[in-house]
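dumping this here so i dont lose it
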């Protein structure tokens, strides 16, 4: 498996501009070709739903399953349907998904509220998914509860790696700015994704490289430097 990778969520205005990088596409966005990327992530769209106070109903799950079947493949990882900041509903969705014999998905660890890390809640989910996958989880998603790396418990991901047979941990929505990406590159998380590389690129904080040019060009340069930082710090 790979170590320390940056993943670019792709909005419509950056389609075709980031094909050399690992990428994330949130449902219902249609993913692009894998091309030179090592892997891609197909996301369930749970975070977007949470922002609009919407829920995943049965029809949503059916359509998500069709989407995953159509666009998944080798080195493409599908995120289990989840509920942002609700680990109980996330497990319920996981159970319902599998009771319907839907497409293979990778589990998501959720917290109970923002900026809170309760090891008992994390352990409860890890125990559940470890039992389900008979001890080995090849790809695990951790949902970032609105925190920067410095706000995380020290060595949280090392602890998970040490105590559970988890091959790869990806932190969904981690990396608020260039400094935060640097901090994540020196932890035991394997990969992160963040919209910060393209969000507000015309601001001082958003234009990480102080690059000139169009919004697209600035986002591409941010993606380049974030990818370089992550890949240069192998565990």
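and the seq i came up w/
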């Amino acid at each position: 498996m790979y170590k320390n990778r940056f993943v670019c969520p792709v909005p419509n205005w950056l389609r075709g501009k980031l094909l050399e990088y690992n990428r994330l596409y949130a449902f219902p966005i249609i993913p692009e070709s894998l091309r030179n990327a090592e892997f891609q992530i197909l996301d369930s769209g749970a975070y977007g739903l949470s922002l609009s106070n919407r829920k995943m109903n049965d029809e949503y799950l059916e359509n998500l399953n069709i989407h995953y079947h159509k666009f998944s493949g080798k080195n493409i990882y599908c995120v289990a349907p989840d509920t942002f900041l609700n680990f109980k509903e996330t497990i319920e969705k996981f159970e319902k998904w599998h009771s319907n014999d839907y497409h293979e998905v990778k589990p998501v660890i959720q917290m109970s509220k923002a900026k809170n890390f309760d090891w008992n809640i994390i352990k409860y989910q890890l125990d559940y998914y470890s039992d389900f996958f008979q001890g080995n989880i090849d790809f695990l998603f951790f949902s970032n509860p609105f925190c920067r790396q410095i706000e995380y418990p020290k060595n949280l991901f090392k602890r998970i790696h040490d105590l559970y047979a988890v091959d790869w941990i990806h932190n969904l929505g981690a990396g608020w700015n260039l400094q935060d990406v640097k901090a994540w590159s020196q932890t035991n998380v394997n990969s992160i994704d963040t919209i910060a590389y393209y969000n507000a690129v015309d601001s001082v904080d958003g234009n990480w490289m102080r690059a000139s040019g169009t919004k697209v060009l600035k986002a591409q340069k941010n993606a380049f430097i974030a990818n370089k930082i992550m890949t240069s710090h192998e565990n």
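The chain has one domain: 5-231.
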